[in-house]
Specification:
By secondary structure, the protein is α+β, with helices and mostly antiparallel strands. It contains ten helices and five strands. It has a five-stranded mixed β-sheet, covered by helices on one side. It folds into two domains: 176 residues; 138 residues, 2-Layer Sandwich (Heat Shock Protein 90), CATH 3.30.565.10.
Length: 419
């Protein structure tokens, strides 16, 4: 398996590295030359000599090869080491040690940007060039102790090439780890989104099949019977009454089918067998209170009108489930927080439902969210199914609020409450 190539430096970054290395190397060459005036043991050469200028040019060339780091840092490492060997052969002097600086920078950049398999192949070769260059330069200076020179040359190569590879490899490994973690997180996110999309698609398909059956088996018959009853009201009152009773029977059958539809799409327990409507929301709130939740209700109902008048069975079920799911989420993610359920049924066009919970109270600590997001997705799907709107999000005080707007099927003629 091939090792992934690490990202190299940009053109601008490689140029900056080359320029900074060249300036630093020339400054170091200048300092060594100045110090050699007072300490001849340093082996420095006076300014302006051919050897001094050749050394300066070599440093510039070594630094210029760092521009190759943008594409191949190991080639830059080998080039800087080879140039130091050329200098040791042509103009050996005490200034040779300055050429170690560009090699050291090149080794660091190679460990930082190149794959380990390439570094493992090129670093020993570059170290060998540095060792040979040091040995040749020292031999020309008159040092004849071959064993000592060999050990010093190996040490020089280890320090110049091997030492900077350690921090560079550590930094590169940390960067690779972060990149792998980000890729893993992205993959998990994509998988989660795919599961959510699949769940939504399956739920839509189930809803579509069941609603199609309800419409085909009942609603078309109700429409036909209603038109017949309208014609028989004056001419045949008894038949019209029988037709109205049949319409009522078909309507009850629709409600029963809707109850079964909910059973298909949502897991129901033994206490969830009755048809849920907006009128049963107060009972839901009372059950939450008995369970220890701090829930308050604010019912805003127009005069002489039942709660939820003009809203169909699916709309009423969607509103009930929205309140139920919101209270469940509040108890899970903000235990002990105060909740307010607001039902605004005053508009002739839409009913507004809002469930707002405060942040966790007292010393309670908000637990880490463990949900899959299907709850919010389900509430939004129900709202879209009935032509309504749904929104949810954090509040300014750190709490949470869910909002659903449910349209009425009849905008003007609402049934009056029974007297």
């Amino acid at each position: 398996m091939k090792t992934a190539q690490r990202p190299g430096l940009t053109d601008s970054a490689a140029g900056v590295a080359a320029a900074v290395t060249a300036l630093s190397a020339l400054a170091l060459l200048w300092i060594v030359t100045l110090l050699a005036r007072d300490d001849p043991s340093l082996g420095g050469l006076p300014h302006g000599t051919v050897a001094w200028w050749v050394t300066a040019v070599t440093l510039v060339l070594q630094s210029a090869t760092l521009v190759c780091t943008r594409h191949r840092a190991t080639a830059a490492l080998a080039s800087t080491a080879a140039l130091s060997l050329v200098l040791a052969v042509v103009f050996p002097s005490g200034l040779f040690t300055v050429t170690a600086l560009p090699v050291l920078v090149a080794a660091f950049l190679a460990g930082l940007t190149e794959a380990w398999r390439d570094v493992r192949r090129w670093a020993p070769a570059s170290g060998a060039l540095v060792a040979v260059a040091y040995f040749v330069n020292s031999t020309t200076d008159g040092n004849s102790d071959g064993t000592a020179l060999s050990m010093q040359a190996v040490l020089q190569a280890a320090l110049v090439v091997g030492l900077p590879l350690l921090p560079a490899s550590l930094i590169a490994a940390q960067r690779d780890t972060r990149a792998a973690q980000q890729e893993t997180l992205a993959a998990v996110t994509r998988e989660r989104d795919a599961k959510i999309s699949e769940a939504i698609a399956l739920e839509r398909a189930a809803m579509a099949r069941e609603l199609h059956d309800i419409a085909a088996h009942h609603l078309s018959g109700i429409s036909i019977m209603a038109s017949v009853v309208a014609r028989q009201t004056t001419s045949a009152p008894s038949e019209a009454r029988s037709g109205a009773l049949e319409i009522r029977r078909q309507s009850n059958a629709i409600l029963e089918d809707l109850r079964r539809l909910v059973g298909l799409l949502r897991d129901v327990g033994p206490d969830d067998e009755e048809v849920k409507t907006l009128i049963t929301i107060p009972g839901l709130i009372e059950a939450a209170r008995l369970a220890g939740a701090r829930v308050e209700s604010d019912l805003r109902i127009a005069e002489r009108r039942e709660l939820g008048a003009g809203i169909g069975p699916l709309g009423q079920l969607a509103g009930y489930r929205m309140v139920q799911e919101s209270l469940t989420n509040a108890s899970r993610h903000a235990p002990g927080a105060r909740c307010l359920v607001t039902v605004d049924d005053r508009s002739p066009l839409r009913l507004q439902l809002t469930v707002r919970n405060a942040p966790p109270s007292g010393a309670q600590v908000r637990p880490t969210p463990s949900g899959t997001g299907f709850g919010l997705m389900g509430m939004k799907e129900r709202a879209l199914l009935i032509g309504g709107d749904f929104d949810a999000g954090p509040t300014d005080d750190g709490g949470w609020e869910t909002r659903m707007s449910i349209p009425r099927e009849s905008e003007h003629n609402f049934p009056e409450p029974p007297t």
